[in-house]
Amino acid sequence: MGQVGSPEEPVSNASATPAAAGRDPCGAEDLPEDFYAQIKSDLQHRIAERLTSARRVLEVGCGSCELARFLAARNRQHVVGVDISDGSFPDKGLEDEAVECHRADARRLRFVQDRTFDAAVSVYALHEVDKPVEVLTEIKRVLQKGGVVLLVDFPKHSLAERLWQEDYYTLGEVRGLLSRAGFQRPEVRGIAQGQVLWAEGIKCVDEEGAS
Predict the structure, then answer these.
(1) pTM value?
(2) DSSP code per residue over 60-117
């Protein structure tokens, strides 16, 4: 089983990372094609550990709500998952009381009141969003003051890019998206041998009259 790294792993300087510089991070060409499957469990546990203090969590791009159900079981959290498609949602008989799965446009979460969630998470979905700043701004609206958004995605020039021929963001670009959406102290780093992008932003506790 691959390791994604410990919570104490230092924050990388985006300008100094291989992904940001346009190079292959940590020899992606030498990694097995099932690399992401190997690190899946460790990554889920790392996300759960980071969000352990939150009572209510929003997951954007929830897919099958697998992570939402994991967080609900491990951390005893109430998790609301949203996705533009409900094709992968659990069958009605398999629903969990602590998990809600909603088909919704993440740019307009009309069913969610301001300052509802303590944390928000999105895994492997940011690169698929057409208007990421709008989505991040909406996430900020529904977060409590002091709430954290956690973005996990594939970085540019990673193994994922070779496997699936998709375009991904650099670490610096994701930091810029968080800043433009109004999140404070954005931190972005590469984990899992540089093959996963881990980004965090905080909704400032000092915002007055802001959503």
Answers:
(1) 0.85
(2) ES-TT-HHHHHHHHHH--EEEEEES--TTSPPGGG--TTEEEEE--TT--TTS-TT-E
Residue from 63, 74, 123, 129 nearest 98 by CA: 74
Q: Name the token pair of 31.
A: 């990694």
pLDDT tens digit at each of 211 positions of the chain: 344 443 334 333 333 344 444 455 456 889 999 999 999 999 999 999 999 999 999 999 999 999 999 999 999 999 999 999 887 787 665 567 899 999 999 999 999 999 999 999 999 999 999 999 999 999 999 999 999 999 999 999 999 999 999 999 999 999 999 999 999 999 999 999 999 999 999 998 655 454 5
The helix-helix angle for 171-180 and 132-142 (nearest 10°) equals 50
Half-sphere exposure for 207 (CA within 13 Å, toward CB): 18
Angle (nearest 5°) at CA 70 between 91 and 51:
135
The neighbouring-strand residues paired with 198 are: 152, 189
**Which residue matches tokens 């659990």?**
90
Q: What is the Cα–Cα distance from 54 to 74, expressed in whole angstroms? A: 12
Measured distance CA(158)–CA(3) in Å, rounded: 16
Query: Please, which residues have CB within 8 angstroms of residue 8's CB and are 6 or more apart in sequence?
Result: none
Domains of the chain are 31-202 (3.40.50.150)
